[in-house]
Amino acid sequence: MGIYLNPGNRAFYEAVNSKIYVDKTGLISYTNSVLNTLQKFVSVSRPRRFGKSMAADMLVAYYSSGCDSAELFAGRAAEKGELFQEHLNQHNVIRLDMQRFLFDESHLDVFIDKIQEAVTKELQEKYGNCFEIGEYGLPNVLEQIYSQTGNGFIFIIDEWDCVFRVAKEHKEAQKEYLDFLRGLFKGAEYVDMAYMTGILPIKKYGEHSAINIFEEYSMIDSGELTPYFGFDEDEVRELCGQNNVSFPEVQKWYDGYFLNGCHIYNPKSVVDVMRRGKFRSYWTGTETYEALKVYIDMNFNGLKEAIIEMLSNVRCKINTRKFQNDMTTFKTRDDVLTLLVHLGYLAYDEGTGEAFIPNQEIAEEFFNVVDDDGWNGLAQALSRSEGLLKNTWALDGEAVAEGIAAIHDETASILKYNDENSLACTVLMAYYGTKAYYMNPIMELPTGKGFADVVYLPKRQVDRPALVVELKWNKSAEGAINQIKNRRYADWIEGYTGKILLVGINYNEKKEHECVIEEYLKE
Fold first, then answer.
1. Which of 124, 147, 233, 445 would suit a FRET pair with 404, their CA atoms being 20 to 30 Å apart?
2. Cα gap 479→158, rounded to integer Å
3. Mind listing the pLDDT tens digit for each residue in 131-155?
4. Whole-number pLDDT of residue 450
5. Are the CB atoms for 474 and 509 separated by under 8 Å?
6. Tens of pLDDT along 287-324?
């Protein structure tokens, strides 16, 4: 049993024997199915504390010939796989945690050499007579061993992307590292499987992956590996029953990641709330508030508007395809938002191509950021929303106009306030308080003969009127109301709820707001 070559199963033993353990050994059936196939290169990217390292430890415990793990897997899902016994502790495993070799930027010049030295030293202890060490390093050593013995290797690499996080600006060091990985894996007969985990997907140069042999599973496209990282709804419901914790409250705080049609919960947060019984932000404690602030303070066109929309429970369409899978190459707001998806600060719906703030835990981190000088007045604007909502229910258009004008003044430095899109952002801030009574706002709902700008539908068993909001720039609030009526925007929701309010809002060049509110009368 070595540190890097054929390590033991201690880490997985500790996971299995913890107070809360959720069986994810079903992943082994998948990895067994790709051994020595064209799909044997697997890259899994997930945010921090999403179970990546535990899964890597599990695979080490299962495959490594340096330990006996039969008892650890007894009765677990993996045991049902038809290839389970065939591969149990039967492989040479090389396990690398890249962060152990790259603590900080001072190691950049030597960490690749140190990786090769450490692994080669252990290979010498087992295969000393099978190879000579030459200028081509570890790949050549492994080639010689395979040629002499026919023994292949399973590579399990954790924190594969640490160089892109620790040394964000060091492009040459990043390229050298990718060249090392390419040389280690591409075309290598000695690879039975290579399994890598990290926060970021594999780095791109232009539109192409630098290591294009890997099957990638990420927060953008999790594929068939969705169930094995994070807890699903059934698992969380069962844990709540076992630990006498409110499942609806857990949903509100920690649900929201939507992968491949499944609701996924951050396991760190769920485990901590089960152990401690207190609902608060657990996972975000592993990152600093500044880590999020750096990215959402970037001055890309439309970025702050997108954040405001998502804080108001609106989903934001993003293009994830051009993201270069690093933490410095940003050209558009979509690049920043895509990074936030990979970091876990946003969730992503692959079916619709939309990003959104997943839950209360993450929303609190965003509020910490916007309660800051760079977001002048946003926190104050959001705090006004409860009063503005009550004025809307009271049909007090004048008070609503005054409230929206105050929010505009407080946030003038954030938004370029000269069109209906910016007015929509202000209205979303103004009605932020609707989240307690209404479902997520629907933007441009197709109804009647056109699109209503914003529609708020009350939650079930909540006695509040639906709101149909039409926005105008440099026209009139009365005109907005007439458009709702003439184009029959309210027809679609007539059967959904009882009372419906029509809200027309206008803003003009003189920086004046006006609002008209009427109750919709069914014909």
1. 445
2. 60
3. 888 888 999 999 999 999 999 999 9
4. 43
5. yes
6. 555 678 888 888 788 888 888 888 888 888 999 998 99
Alpha carbon distances (Å) from 36 to 42, 62, 202, 213: 12, 17, 21, 13
Ordered strands of the 347-349 beta sheet: 316-317, 354-356, 347-349
Which residue reads 């027309």 in tokens? 504
377-519 — its CATH code? 3.40.1350
Check the CA dihedral 72-77-79-83 and report its sign: negative
Beta bridge partners of 404: none
Specify the length of the chain in residues: 523
Domain ranges of the chain: 10-226, 230-285, 287-374, 377-519
Dihedral sign for Cα atoms in the order 509, 512, 513, 515:
negative
User: d(Cα 47, Cα 197) in Å, to the nearest integer?
Assistant: 10
Picking from 133, 153, 129, 161, the residue whose alpha carbon sits closest to that of residue 48 is: 161
Tokens of 395: 């049909």
Q: Look at phi and psi of residue 365 and say left if phi exceeds 0, alpha if psi is from -120 to 50, else beta.
A: alpha
Q: Which residue has the tokens 């103004």?
A: 430
Tell me, what DSSP letter sits at residue 232? E
Instruction: Report how many helices (DSSP H) and strands (DSSP E) the chain contains, helices first.
Output: 21, 18
Query: How far is Cα 299 from Cα 69, in angstroms, rounded to an integer?
Result: 52
Residues 502 and 518: their CA atoms lie apart, in Å, by 5
Cα–Cα distance, 170 to 193 (Å, whole number): 29
pLDDT given for residue 286 in this prediction:
52
Token pair, residue 319, equals 């293009």
In this predicted model, what pLDDT tens digit does every residue of 259-296 receive, in sequence order? 988 999 999 999 999 999 999 888 765 555 567 888 88
Handedness of CA 164, 169, 173, 174 (dihedral sign): positive
Query: How many other β-carbons are positioned within 10 Å of the β-carbon of residue 254?
Result: 28
Helix or strand (DSSP H, E) at 455: strand 450-456
Contacts of 523 by beta carbon, 8 Å cutoff, 6+ apart = none
Work out the burial of residue 18: count CB atoms within 10 Å of its CB; fewer than 13 is exposed, 13-18 middle, 19 or more buried. exposed
Q: Considering all CA atoms of the chain, what is the largest pairwise distance in Å, rounded to the nearest integer?
A: 92
CA angle 281, 285, 290 (to 5 degrees): 110
CA distance 411 to 427: 12
Calpha distance 55→428 (Å, rounded): 41
* Residue 296 near residue 369 (C-beta atoms within 8 A): yes
- Assess if CATH 3.30.360 describes domain 10-226: no
